[in-house]
Structure to design on (236 residues):
């Protein structure tokens, strides 16, 4: 994705979602993939829904893990942790400050290290802390963090641009009108995607099927065979 890892930076004034979707279709064309499901983690659920609207003939389904739902009602915000509420408010009311805040935040992570930062972010969820105790999972997360905060680059600008696209708008109508099937796996102890909000949307949208995981949080790696099997059912 533009601005992450060693990829080219996001062009100035470009929409982060539109650029990401265009890049995905370019990659699919290069690989000869005409139609496929999208696996979306957390905030990328909104991006996946936008991609399905942009080219429904190319998306067979969206399999979402710990998806973040649109925040519209007062209750949606009340259920969020303070940090998430802060990001939403900044993206909506002071988007110009978000890249600077992200730069400071990424600098903080560099200073304390990704291991301590992950424990800090997931500390409220005992279920997620248990998953982080798996050395294989933790090693994968640490390796993956290099695309955002590597030794020679920082994705704070790209992250901020994506956050503005994600949080600054009400996309509940877009979600309700999603033209492809949506299958969500959501943990009861997810600190970033409150299960009560996810339930409300699943109950109101026939095209959104929800699988609740009572003993898990945001990190759903322990049930990977289940969502891998779901992905396989939507492969052409």
């Amino acid at each position: 994705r533009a601005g992450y890892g060693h990829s080219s930076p996001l062009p100035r004034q470009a929409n982060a979602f539109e650029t990401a979707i265009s890049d995905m279709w370019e990659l699919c064309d290069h690989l000869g993939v005409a139609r496929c499901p999208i696996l979306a983690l957390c905030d990328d659920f909104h991006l996946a829904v936008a991609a399905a609207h942009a080219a429904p003939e190319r998306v067979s389904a969206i399999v979402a893990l710990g998806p973040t739902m649109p925040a519209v009602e007062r209750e949606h915000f009340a259920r969020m942790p303070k940090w998430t509420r802060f990001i939403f408010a900044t993206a909506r009311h002071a988007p110009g400050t978000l890249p600077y805040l992200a730069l400071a935040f990424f600098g903080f992570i560099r200073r304390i290290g990704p291991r301590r930062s992950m424990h800090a972010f997931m500390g409220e969820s005992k279920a997620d802390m248990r998953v982080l105790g798996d050395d294989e999972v933790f090693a994968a997360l640490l390796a993956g963090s290099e695309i955002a905060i590597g030794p020679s680059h920082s994705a704070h600008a790209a992250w901020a641009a994506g956050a503005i696209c994600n949080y600054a708008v009400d996309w509940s109508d877009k979600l309700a009108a999603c033209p492809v099937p949506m299958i969500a796996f959501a943990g009861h102890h997810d600190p970033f995607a409150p299960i009560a909000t996810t339930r409300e949307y699943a109950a109101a949208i026939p095209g959104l099927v929800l699988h609740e995981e009572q003993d898990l949080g945001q990190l759903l790696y322990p049930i990977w065979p289940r969502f891998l099997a779901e992905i396989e059912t939507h492969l052409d």
Summary: The longest strand covers residues 59-65. The CA atoms of residues 104 and 156 lie 9 Å apart.
